[in-house]
Amino acid sequence: MTYRALTSLLLCGLLAGVAQAAPDSHNTEAQLAKSLQAIKNNRLDIALNEVDNLLRFNPNFKLAYLVKGDLLMARAGAINNFGNAPNAPREMIEGLRDEARVRLQRAQTRLSIKLPPRYLWKLDARQKYAIVVDTSRSTLYVYENVNGEPRYVADYYITIGKFGTEKVSEGDQRTPIGVYFVKTELPKDKLSDFYGNGAYPLSYPNEWDRKNKRTGSGIWLHGTPSDTYSRPPRASNGCVVLANDDLDKLAPYLQVGITPVIITNQIDWANEQDQVERDALLQEFEQWRKDWSSLDTDTYLKHYSHNFSSEDMNYPAWAKQKQLVNSAKSWIKVNVSNVSIFTYPEQPNMAVVNFEQDYNSNNLSNRMKKRQYWIKQNSRWQIVYEGAA
User: Which one, of 226, 21, 205, lies nearest residue 103 by Cα?
Assistant: First the structure.
């Protein structure tokens, strides 16, 4: 990519958003934009001054060093290509070029951030925040739960797997697509420097991954080594990686065991049809609860797809067990609380429902966290997976 192409992209979208830059990676991108604007205007001294200011605050920013190197070389003669460092590894230069492209293009998406993403159909009261990762834009979005509705808070530049998304197997260096949750927090002093200021393991593989025979583990949100400000868009072994300063800003939004992290190839924004489908699913979910409580087992089982499975049972085994268990009941009461619903990326008409179930009967009482995967089939929502969360 030439400097002319980079700076043309800059003028089309980035500068319009500079004044609104937030005190995070947006500031870095705004500073980079100013330098590239000065290059376009052939004001190389100004451009060099802007890069030096950028490096003063981010002394390990490799992309800024690449721009500075080009500017110093330009004093000896014209340069036409971005990244003219002699004898530099081609893979490294290509990665930095990709980072420049992505950081500039990120600004063009900021007009959409006021819209809620379609994945957050319902947040429960405990879920103060939700995370949506758009891998195509190398961007992690943070949304706050405001009376059950998502409201944009912040977004950050991120790195994903070297070979992109759609993780299938251990070691494929891909980032998974799906609905996950923060499992735990690993502090900096428990990790090697490679992970930066900390790490937050995610719940990959989830139930849908296991149902589809996907393997692997160790998909984390984490930082960068102390000598690295940021990494190219595709450079991790499958994890989602942020600059350490951005990870520190993200940390207060992450609740262990509660915060959803939805990773998608390309973010979709909510529309009116989403509300219609959400209400239909909520109605079906409530009817499932009522039919179970009524001890009408045949009607209750109609809520389950014939493709249904739990951790150890398919539909015939599940149906047989429910008929056997319910035959010993004289009464059942089932109540649910803390219900959340997330549509599943890249899986049309599928949603993940999480809830707390309070079950009471004449011979058993228990309370547990549960998770169901619902798919809309033949114009009706049905359950394809159910198990403990």
Answer: 21
pLDDT, position 88: 59
Query: What is the per-residue burial (b if ≥16 Cβ within 10 Å, else e) of 131-143?
Result: bbbbbbbbbbbbb
Pairing of strands 240-241, 260-264: unpaired
Do residues 154 and 185 lie in contact, with contact meaning Cβ atoms separated by under 8 Å? Answer: no
How would you label 289-299 residue by residue, b for 16+ Cβ within 10 Å and e otherwise?
Answer: bebbbeeebee
User: Are 369 and 388 spatial neighbours (Cβ–Cβ below 8 Å)?
Assistant: yes
Q: What is the spatial distance between Cα 354 and Cα 342, in angstroms, rounded to a whole number?
A: 9
3 state DSSP class of 30: helix
Q: Give Cα 364 distance to the centre of its chain.
A: 39
Domains of the chain (ranges; CATH) run: 3-109 (no CATH), 113-264 (2.40.440.10), 272-388 (3.10.450.50)
13 pairs with which residues across the strands?
none
Q: Which residue, among 295, 375, 284, has the nearest Cα to 334 in the 3D structure?
A: 295
Write out the H or E segment, with its range, that includes residue 344: none
Specify burial of residue 245 (Cβ count, 10 A radius: 0-12, 13-18, 19+).
buried
User: Exposure string (b/e) for 111-128, b if CB count within 10 Å is 16 or more?
Assistant: eebeebbbbbbbbbeebe
**Would the pLDDT of 11 be above 60?**
no
User: Mapping DSSP to helix (H, G, I), strand (E, B) and coil, where does residue 381 land?
Assistant: strand
State the pLDDT at residue 19.
35
Q: What is the pTM for the complete model shown?
A: 0.87
Structure tokens at 199: 């790490």
pLDDT tens profile 157-208: 999 999 999 999 999 999 999 999 999 999 999 999 999 999 999 999 999 9
* Tens-digit pLDDT profile for residues 12-23: 433 333 333 334
Provide the token pair at 188.
């900096």
Contact 116/270 with Cβ under 8 angstroms? yes
Cα 387 to Cα 105, 278, 285, 295, 353, distances in angstroms: 41, 21, 15, 20, 11
Q: Which residues pair with 367 in a beta bridge?
A: 358
Question: Under the phi-then-psi rule, with left for phi > 0, alpha for psi from -120 to 50, and beta for the rest, what region is 43?
Answer: beta
CA gyration radius, the chain: 25
